[in-house]
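Notebook, bench 3.
Goal today: get a predicted structure for DUF2149 domain-containing protein from Pelomonas lactea so we can plan the truncation constructs. The sequence was checked against the plasmid map this morning, with no discrepancies at the termini. Length recorded as 111 residues. Pasting the sequence as submitted so the record is complete.
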Amino acid sequence: MKHLTILAEEDDDPMLSAVNLVDVFLVLVVALLTAVALQQQAAADENVTIIKRPGEPDMEVIVREKGQEIRYKGNGGSSEGQGVRAGVAYKLKDGNIIYVPEAGASGAGKP
């Protein structure tokens, strides 16, 4: 009787499939590392604003623009400046904001 050589292969070594799996995983790891490196490079080029300890007296605002970092630190007090009240803004239920100038404000005409 003649033996079927199609069914009886000589290279049924289970280590060959394990080596192929290692190769596939190595390619995946290299692809993931490349993606992470590109993501970090893109994040460095973005403009970012970070607020540390919001609402606290020692609040700090960090602004990163074009590779430069600027830090603004609170002094514990409220902001002071020269100016006058110009009007009132109201937020409606649908999200629209309406500005109503006051009669005594500059640029507002008297009715």
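Residues 3 and 9 are 12 Å apart (CA to CA). The longest strand covers residues 60-65.
Flagging this for group meeting.
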